[in-house]
């Protein structure tokens, strides 16, 4: 019976106190709080944007093209077709977040099982390593280019391409954490107790690897947001007239000297979104670090 | 050492072969019949059949693959469907541009990144650390093509300090060449610097808290010597990895920068080929990108074993 209580203790009360400790550390870190608030606000605006955006994103107004920021009715000005920049930014940010989450979900769904397998089964390690090498050899732009050429350019395809490109990173962190956890006593105890490999992976290793997966996800989301901006800027992502921060920058480039605001605001929003995720990711990593305040 | 070398060489060769297969099959998965694209006006079944025969498209796939590899090894990547120019000659004009841009960007990134990373690790709690950390976070989060756009808007168009776009070959006029390429290189480099800085900083923090650094301090070495000869040397492996990965990724990573600054490099060639559905060019570009990545990675691994002799024995970065 004693062998049984070991894994229980590891997954039970210990992790509960750990969770409260991590949350407390996050609450005490002003950067974490600020970035969390920014992200929460962005999420709310993105979710509600179809209803709270002041104008329809595709509504053109040729009487009011290139209105500067501060124009009554158009806080952030209008673009070359007289469309409201603020409304387009709100829906563009929504698309950015969508791509970010979709890409990371793709990379986790494929990467986590492969990482677990590579770390747990020696025989699989070599095969999965070659697969990772292969993925790494095709940078995400190339992947996106290929996918766009085969299946057409769209938000979903851009997200999948970015997600595929992020798989190697997921495999790497999950594999190394699995290797570490596998050598710990509670896993050995479970094995001695007769647990199957699948049970050990699902019940003991995966739950304990969640913190590295979480940190990996928070750094992957901003990378995906930037990736979407690049793809849309090049015309390989979200297709106009649907708003995307990247596409907005691409069109704004053509008349940037005349209406710099149309080129500045979307970039600022991309930066704020990515920065908030990166800052929060850093804070989360610090809070999860068992070595404490480093 | 020899065994390690051979194993890495074998792994690289295998990855290279696999990626060639992927590219080959990937291009065949693309929509559109290449024979139809090549045929132009005369689309009679006989003409299409003749084209298929001429390009070996009527052969079984494995045989086509073998022929494709055989030609690619000889540097023959076929002819651009759009312009009729051999892909290899397009590459010889585009690659030097990207190579120059990449090398300059990496140099800027390494100097800035390692410098700021060491500074942030050594000056803990000092305002310099905050500044370096903050700048790195911003550098990581800012879309670099947007920075490029702003740079063109405010440094080129408004003040005329730099040309807004275009390129002059290095051999034709070195000064004018640098004038054209310095802004894109700085923009590209600062983004990479942020990543290098963060990795250098965390590696330096690790080595600074290690026993050998304490020993070095205890035996009375000057702080500068402790930092450069002991801590930095042992952090180098991380830096080398990152720089190597970045260099491999830059071949295609420079795409957007080249696009914005109108540099006629590899990236621009890629994008143009994609929009024109120029399959022979796409195929060559993708294959070369993958190859460059694999070859650079192989050399990075070799460099590892020089920096950290333990790797030769265990075969794993410590």
Total domain count of chain A:
1
Shape of chain A: elongated
> What is the assigned CATH homologous superfamily of chain A?
MetI-like
Average per-residue pLDDT of chain A, rounded, comes to: 82
**Element string of chain A (H = helix, E = strand):** HHHHHHHHHHH
The name of the CATH superfamily of the domain at 94-314 in chain B reads MetI-like
CATH topology of chain A: MetI-like fold
State the CATH class of chain A.
Mainly Alpha
Shape of chain B: flat
Main sheet characteristics of chain B: none
Strand content of chain B: under 5%
> Largest interface by residue count?
A-B, 43 and 45 residues
Number of helices in the DSSP assignment of chain A: 11
Helix percent band of chain A: over 70%
Number of strands of chain B: 0
Largest sheet of chain A: none
What order do the helices and strands of chain B follow?
HHHHHHHHHHHHHH
Q: Oligomeric form of this entry?
A: heterodimer
CATH architecture of the domain at 94-314 in chain B: Orthogonal Bundle
CATH architecture group name of chain A: Orthogonal Bundle
Subcellular location (chain B): Cell membrane
Membrane topology (chain B): Multi-pass membrane protein
Protein name (chain B): Peptide ABC transporter
Pfam families (chain B): BPD_transp_1, BPD_transp_1_N
């Amino acid at each position: 019976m004693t062998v049984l209580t070991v894994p229980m203790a590891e997954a039970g009360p210990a992790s509960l106190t750990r969770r409260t400790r991590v949350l407390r550390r996050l609450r005490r870190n002003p950067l974490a709080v600020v970035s969390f608030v920014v992200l929460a606000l962005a999420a709310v605006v993105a979710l509600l944007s179809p209803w709270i955006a002041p104008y329809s994103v595709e509504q053109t107004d040729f009487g009011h093209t290139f209105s500067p920021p501060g124009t009554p009715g158009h806080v952030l000005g209008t673009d070359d077709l007289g469309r409201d920049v603020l409304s387009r930014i709100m829906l563009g940010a929504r698309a950015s977040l969508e791509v970010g989450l979709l890409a990371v979900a793709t990379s986790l769904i494929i990467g986590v099982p492969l990482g677990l397998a590579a770390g747990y089964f020696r025989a699989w390690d070599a095969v999965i390593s070659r697969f990772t090498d292969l993925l790494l050899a095709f940078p995400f732009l190339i992947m996106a280019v290929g996918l766009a050429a085969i299946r057409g350019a769209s938000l979903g395809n851009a997200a999948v391409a970015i997600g595929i490109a992020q798989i190697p990173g997921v495999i790497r962190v999950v594999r190394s954490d699995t290797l570490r956890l596998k050598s710990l006593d509670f896993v050995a105890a479970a094995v001695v107790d007769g647990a199957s490999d699948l049970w050990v992976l699902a019940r003991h290793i995966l739950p304990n690897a969640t913190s590295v997966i979480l940190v990996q996800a928070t750094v992957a989301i901003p990378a995906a947001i930037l990736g979407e901006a690049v793809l849309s800027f090049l015309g390989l992502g979200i297709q106009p007239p649907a708003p995307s921060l990247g596409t907005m920058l691409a069109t704004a480039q053509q008349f940037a000297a005349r209406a710099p605001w149309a080129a500045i605001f979307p970039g600022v929003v991309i930066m704020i979104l990515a920065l908030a995720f990166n800052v929060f990711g850093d804070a989360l990593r610090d809070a999860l670090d068992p070595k404490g305040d480093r | 050492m020899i065994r390690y070398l051979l194993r890495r060489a074998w792994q690289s060769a295998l990855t290279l072969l696999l990626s060639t297969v992927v590219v080959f099959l990937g291009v065949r998965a693309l929509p559109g019949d290449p024979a139809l694209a090549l045929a132009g006006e005369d689309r009679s079944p006989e003409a299409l059949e003749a084209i298929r025969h001429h390009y070996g498209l009527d052969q079984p796939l494995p045989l086509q693959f073998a022929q494709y590899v055989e030609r690619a090894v000889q540097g023959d990547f076929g002819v651009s469907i759009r312009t009729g120019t051999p892909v290899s000659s397009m590459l010889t004009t585009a690659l030097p541009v990207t190579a120059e841009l990449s090398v300059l960007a990496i140099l800027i990134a390494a100097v800035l990144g390692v410098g700021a990373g060491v500074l942030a690790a050594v000056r803990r709690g000092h305002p310099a650390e905050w500044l370096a950390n903050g700048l790195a976070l911003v550098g990581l989060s800012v879309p670099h093509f947007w920075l490029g756009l702003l740079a063109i808007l405010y440094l080129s168009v408004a003040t005329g300090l730099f040309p807004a776009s275009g390129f002059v070959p290095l051999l034709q006029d070195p000064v004018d060449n640098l004038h054209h390429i310095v802004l894109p290189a700085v923009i590209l480099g600062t983004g990479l610097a942020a990543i290098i800085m963060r990795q250098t900083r965390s590696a330096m923090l690790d080595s600074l808290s290690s026993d050998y650094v304490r020993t070095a301090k205890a035996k009375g070495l000057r702080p500068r010597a402790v930092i450069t000869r002991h801590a930095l040397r042992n952090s180098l492996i991380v830096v080398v990895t990152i720089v190597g990965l970045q260099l491999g990724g830059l071949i295609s990573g420079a795409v957007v920068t080249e696009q914005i600054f109108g540099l006629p490099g590899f990236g621009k060639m890629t994008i143009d080929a994609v929009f024109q559905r120029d399959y022979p060019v796409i195929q060559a570009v993708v294959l070369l990108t993958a190859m460059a990545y694999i070859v650079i990675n192989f050399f990075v691994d070799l460099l590892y074993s020089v920096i950290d002799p333990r790797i030769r024995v265990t075969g794993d970065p410590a």
